[in-house]
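Continuing the batch. This is chain 6 of the set; chains 1 through 5 are on the previous pages. Same settings as before, nothing changed between runs. Recording input and output for traceability.
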Amino acid sequence: MSSIKKYIAEAIGTCVLVTFGCGTAVAVGCDSASGSGYLLTALAFGLVIVAMAYSIGNISGCHVNPAVSIAMLIRKQLSGKDFVGYVIAQLVGAALGCVILGIVFGFDCGFGANQIQAGWEQGTVGSALLVEIILTFVFVLAIIGVTSKVENTAVSGLVIGLTLTLVHILGIALTGTSVNPARSLMPALFAGGDALAQVWIFIVGPLVGGALAAVVYSALDKEEA
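Output for chain 6:
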């Protein structure tokens, strides 16, 4: 499979993720007054990954997330060149998704951008960073584990999608759940304001969490001498 086709697949997948995941957050609301919005948004993100995993997974691996790509780079399942290409494609896809949301909902819709949630009493920069590291660690660990065995191929997309739903169910009330720098950076750029000021949390946290997952899984999976 050519690298260009892989990059196009990553851009499409990330565009769909932002359009349907962030779009659901915009459509149903994710505040304390509309608690059902938590579950609907969590399901939207998870179901997008299921759909994309079974459609573009055989082309690019369906990373659609720099935190996943950095984990695969560390595990030497992705070259440095392709890592850069994947991340650029993911950012382009996320930007396209934001343009679609702007056209559909208006360019003042907020774009489902991540922020430390106002209702989180213990919400600080440090706690938000920790939450994003933990959520991403769990998500990427599941991805590495389920994709490391060929016999899991038939169910891997479902497992990954359900895991993303799981981390969203907890994380939405805290940080809005990023676990994906591309999904966070572009909506923040479009939304501006506090979202843009805090966006570094949702870049650093997921990248650290993804890298930790790769290192920990590799250590656990290493055969004893």
